[in-house]
Amino acid sequence: MDIVIIGGVASGAKAAAKVKRLLPHANVKIYTDDTHVSYSSCGLPYYIQGNFSDYTSLLVRSPEEFKSSGIDVFLQSKVDKILPEQKDILVSVACKSELVHYDKLIIATGARPIRPEIAGINDYENIFTLRKIEDGINIREKMLNSKKAVIVGGGYIGIELLEAFSRNGVYTELFEQSSQIMPSIDYEMSEIIKNRLNSIENKNFGLHTDTVITEFIGENGVLTGVKASDGKEYECEIAVVCAGVRPNVELANEAGIEIGETGAIKVNKLMRTSIENIFACGDCAEKTHIVSGKKVWIPLGSTANKEGRCAAMNVAGIYCEFEGVLGSMVTRCLNTTIAMTGLTEKEAQKIGFKPVSVIVNKYDKVAYMPDTGEISLKVVADKITGLLLGAQAVGSIGADKRVNTVTSGLIGHLTVEEFSKNDLTYSPAYSPTIDPLLNAMQILCKKTARSC
Amino acid sequence: MDIVIIGGVASGAKAAAKVKRLLPHANVKIYTDDTHVSYSSCGLPYYIQGNFSDYTSLLVRSPEEFKSSGIDVFLQSKVDKILPEQKDILVSVACKSELVHYDKLIIATGARPIRPEIAGINDYENIFTLRKIEDGINIREKMLNSKKAVIVGGGYIGIELLEAFSRNGVYTELFEQSSQIMPSIDYEMSEIIKNRLNSIENKNFGLHTDTVITEFIGENGVLTGVKASDGKEYECEIAVVCAGVRPNVELANEAGIEIGETGAIKVNKLMRTSIENIFACGDCAEKTHIVSGKKVWIPLGSTANKEGRCAAMNVAGIYCEFEGVLGSMVTRCLNTTIAMTGLTEKEAQKIGFKPVSVIVNKYDKVAYMPDTGEISLKVVADKITGLLLGAQAVGSIGADKRVNTVTSGLIGHLTVEEFSKNDLTYSPAYSPTIDPLLNAMQILCKKTARSC
Fold first, then answer.
1. Which residues pair with B232 in a beta bridge?
2. What is the full DSSP assignment across A125-150?
3. What's the CA gap between B181 and B227, in Å, rounded?
4. What is the percent of chain A with per-residue pLDDT over 70, rounded to a whole number?
5. What percentage of chain A reaches a pLDDT higher than 90?
6. Nearest to A261 by CA among A299, A238, A294
7. What is the DSSP string of A208-235?
8. Residues near B338 by beta carbon (within 8 Å), at least 6 away in sequence
9. Which of A318, A322, A392, A408 to mutate to test the interface with B (most CBs of B within 10 A)?
10. Which of A145, A374, A378, B93 is least enclosed by beta carbons within 10 angstroms?
11. DSSP notation for B355-418
12. Phi first, then psi: what are they for B297, rounded to 5°?
């Protein structure tokens, strides 16, 4: 049995390893145009920051490890075509094209950074995007020789790089075209992030929302600054464009595989695409949101791993459903942890819920304890049914704990009333007597149509 | 309307404040034999440690604050009798007895430390128990003038004091009569605690399980050491007996109020006792375990607050049910966080479940990140139904996050299979790509009778 996997970062690598364990006699091959396979791209901002010195720490499994477990990895091997009728793929390796047969094909082509059409974006060597290991190596090298940086985009990667640059003493201007840092969360919560970051003493960065870069400027192919829509020019020796990603679906699309409404490859719960014997997983695949039941495209490493595992099981003939995602995420920028799960209020509204919400601002521990931090916690529920829809938290590291506590409530489709019966752990070193999450639920309960 | 509350530490103070807000015209009176009212006794070990310098930080509301909100607080006022037929209580204030009328009575008499019958236990001034603010002040003062200490009992308070003494440079021997530190958790988990604590470099303490103190020894009323069942003598200048607590139910019992099978005051979900117009809440009251449905007595400050609030609401005529507890707890000893929720395997077995369990030992973050710690996580489920029963975690601070994530799963009565669909937050700085909790659930799923 020939099992071919296109792409090998997270879901592809996971699928390969899993399917080989389940079907030891199968021929498992990974084709990727990348120079590396099986690595943690989520760790790149921390490599750039210098949290660890060797980028090889990011490698989960080396090509040699794959080889020794009987999996063939073909690096820098671009797949040009999928030919479903003959069950072949067409691969370019070193200027030579060859057909490779598959019995089962797993598409794990991932996503790629969006490069917006900004004047000069392709004219200078020191404008980067961050996706692959080389990107991380190149950005770190350039950062270490820079005094001023520009980041275009205030999502996860943008703010993670802001931390990295700031901690390395590089003065950084971050530009976000929307009116908020972290556009995926609700506006009031993003304002809290902005205020926390702006309150850092002697901060060496500037945050610009509602501002776009209109032009990259430089000399002799070397970037020297940017022009922004605020009419000003900002000097910089390095710019990183973090304007989001889009799924790599061209190969699937050309092969006649159905693309979903989100623009990613349509898959069922078994990670099967619309064409038999072809599966898709990871950042190139569409997901189902467990709370809304809607199709979404939320590309994340943790999801990619689960989908890769699930695809592998089904390829091996073991029934496995991947239920979907809650859109749970956590990240950090300097003094601020940002976490969320489920639907934001604006998403809930758009989908057709009648959302009610509450924001509480509380200490993360009992106030008399040392190192007590603050947490702002927003919880969203449906007014009519009382159903818990989501939570967002900004503040100390404890923000992450509260959001994870909500994830299980969403999986269980709990109402706010049910959730407010929760018995959370308490000790002065870990939380206030009544946890902020329960404060929030008690208030929110009164806003729903159910009595609490 | 006369509302009388006996006891004013956590649930009593909470109930008083809440009922006065709901019924501003009621006469609300708190009687307590304590010298303080409304304080965080859970914070005493951290006061002793010196995490904050002023014990008044532990006071939630002062008697003056109560007074200004129209609540009368009678300190050092022992209630001698409850007379339900005439709706009076008999109070001793400064050698004078007086009858005080109530329309509604809330019993919040709390619990008191057990003093085991050990030879010499009442003969020396420097043998303490820890419950009230004076205890904390006295222990801290004595600790600061001691080089060697003995702690009798290895539960929460015992290990919290071990941290306090150790951090203050006092060499401490801790004795636990059972075979494990933290007897409330499963044995294997307690072994992990012991190993972590014993692995601390240059540790200034000794841990003795299966060992009892047979005699306190001293001279002229001053303790100088203990004799232990290992046949050895241990010198010390201070000893703290942390041998557990028992509920203060004598007053209720004498008044004919029903005492539950656990030895605490029997209450229904509305915090009503068996006698009309009398409520009980906090550490003196029995609780229902949400997972097992059984009566339990797990005295904790967070529960006391919730019960106080619930009792107050029902006193005020607003229907409020207190569903029960999960037995969730967290504490810390030096390098080790210990958290649990739900049933342990041994409890589950005893109750009649057919428990299956798994222990995973994992990093709390992606291994390449700085300050990555380790977590040991035990999850327990019922083999037949697949129902999640409980979780215990020992290790870095991240242990607390995983246990809280499980609490909501227990409230939702999720199976392991359902829980394993969870979408937890992921970032290299916060968790591995696949969280230890999901690793554990995946393994546990296979041990249940349900396919996963």
1. none
2. TTEE---SHHHHHHHHHHHHT-SEEE
3. 20
4. 99
5. 98
6. A294
7. E-S--EEEEEEETTEEEEEEETTS-EEE
8. B159, B182, B185, B193, B330, B331, B332, B393, B394, B399
9. A408
10. A145
11. EEEEEEEEESS-TTSTT--EEEEEEEEETTT-BEEEEEEEESTHHHHHHHHHHHHHHTT-BHHH
12. -130, 100
Neighbouring CB atoms inside 10 A of A198's CB total 11
Q: What is the ipTM of this complex?
A: 0.96
Q: Which of residues 259-298 of A touch B (CB under 8 A)?
A: 290
| AA identity, residue B354 | K
pLDDT, one tens digit per residue, over B85-111 is 999 999 997 788 999 999 999 999 999
pTM of the model: 0.96
Tokens encoding A173 = 């201007």
> CB of B248 within 8 A of CB of B257?
no
Residue B7 near residue B284, CB atoms below 8 Å:
yes
Residue B96, both tokens: 């004078």
Average pLDDT over residues B349-358: 97
Evaluate whether A280 touches A271 at the Cβ level (below 8 Å): yes
Give the H or E element holding residue A355. Answer: strand A355-363
Residue A439 has pLDDT above 70, yes or no: yes
User: Which one of A307, A337, A423, A452 makes the best mutation probe of the B interface by having the most chain B beta carbons within 10 Å?
Assistant: A423
Q: What is the model's pLDDT at position B94? A: 75
- Measured in angstroms, the CA of A137 and the nearest CA of chain B are apart by 16
Chain-centroid distance, C-alpha B305: 12
Instruction: Write the CB contacts of B368 (distance below 8 Å, at least 6 apart in sequence).
Output: A40, A43, A46, A51, A52, A57, A58, B428
Instruction: With beta carbons less than 8 A apart as the criterion, state whether A228 and A239 touch.
Output: no
Residues in chain A, overall count: 452
Specify the residue for token string 């972290």: A182
| Residues paired with A246 in a beta bridge | A112
Q: Which two tokens stand for residue A66?
A: 């794959």
User: Are A328 and A156 in contact, with CB atoms under 8 Å apart?
Assistant: no
Burial class (CB in 10 A: 0-12, 13-18, 19+), A2: middle
Tokens standing for A22? 């389940």
Provide the token pair at B108: 């919040």
3-state helix, strand, coil in chain B (%, to 5): 30, 30, 40
**Phi, psi angles (nearest 5°) of residue B294:** -85, 155
Residue type present at position B311: A
- Give how far A33 is from chain B: nearest CA, Å: 24
Around Cβ A71, how many Cβ atoms within 10 Å?
A: 24
Kindly tell me if the per-residue pLDDT of A346 is higher than 60: yes
Cα A358 from chain centroid (whole Å): 26
| CB contact B419 to A (< 8 Å) | yes
- b/e burial code for range A302-322 (CB count within 10 A of at least 16 → b): bbbbbbbbbbbbbbbeeebeb
Q: Which residues of B touch A339 (CB under 8 A)?
A: 425
**Is residue B452's pLDDT more than 60?**
no
Nearest C-alpha neighbor of B131 from the set B334, B339, B283: B283
| Residues on chain B touching A429 (C-beta within 8 angstroms) | 46, 331-332
The DSSP annotation for B71-131 comes to EEEETT-EEEEEETTTTEEEEEETTEEEEEE-SEEEE---EEE-----BTTTT-TTEE---
Query: What are the tens digits of pLDDT across the range B412-438?
Result: 999 999 999 999 999 999 999 999 999
- CB contact, 8 Å: B366 with chain A? yes
Nearest CB partner across the interface for A428, out of B43, B290, B429 = B43
* Structure tokens, B39: 């304080």
Q: Are strands B127-128 and B238-241 parallel, antiparallel or unpaired?
A: parallel
Q: By three-state DSSP, how is residue B282 classified?
A: helix
Residue B148: CB atoms within 10 Å: 18
